[in-house]
Amino acid sequence: MLTAIIDYESGNLHSAEKAFQRMAQETDAGDVRVTDDPEIVARADRIVLPGDGAFPACASALRASGCFDAMIEAVQSRGRPFLGICVGMQLLARVGHEYAETPGLGWIDGEVERIAPANPALKVPHMGWNDLVIDRPHAILDGIDSGEHAYFVHSYQMRMTDPSQRIAHVDYGGDVTAIVAHGNKVGLQFHPEKSAGPGLRMIANFLNWRP
Questions:
Q1: Are strands 110-114 and 156-160 parallel, antiparallel or unpaired?
Q2: Which of 17, 58, 67, 86 is catalytic?
């Protein structure tokens, strides 16, 4: 079993690589590899798409990468489990509105908009620990309860057109989408590799997920 973490120059992947490798070893879930090789992505058993930065830049870099078509083939045609993290989750949406209207992958029915807390004292970006509120059960949340913490760093969030695809949210002057899922695809707005025990548990859950 191989899990491919796609490297499309969207940020430092070292901590994510180490966290996924640790949980793969602990749960006997095979190998984890950070790669920009389309052949490796195409034959991977699981795909992870990270992302740091602005939605338009990440969308452009992903589409320009040699791994884009291989990712589409693996996830859409072959049904491989997919995990998007941070902007990698946002790219699942139909469209993003950061700086310019930019098409996303359209795998989740939502749009990415700037966070606008009802309390003006709350700063944007939304940065730091926040309590997860689980909206509906999902395999990624096995062993996770509402009230457990995750680590966020973002200024934009996914506004859901189809609320049934939102799995969890947090309160930051209003609802902020935290986890989305549909079919063989799941996305985490927070960084699981920086979210201590609950984050590592979700990584392990993904590595052993068979949608």
A1: antiparallel
A2: 86
> With the C-alpha atoms ordered 24, 66, 191, 202, is the resulting torsion angle positive or negative?
negative
| Beta-strand pair 102-103/82-85 | unpaired
For 180, the token pair is 């989305």
Is 193 assigned a catalytic role?
yes
**Which residues, including other chains, have CB under 8 Å from residue 77's CB and lie 6 or more apart?**
none
User: What is the biggest distance separating any 2 CA atoms in the chain, rounded to whole angstroms?
Assistant: 48
Confidence of residue 35 (pLDDT cuts 50, 70, 90): very high
* Whether 191 is catalytic: yes
pLDDT digits (tens, 9 = 90+) for 102-134: 999 999 999 999 999 999 899 999 999 999 999
Residue 54 pLDDT > 90, yes or no? Answer: yes
Q: By C-alpha distance, which of 79, 97, 87, 22 is closest to 49?
A: 87
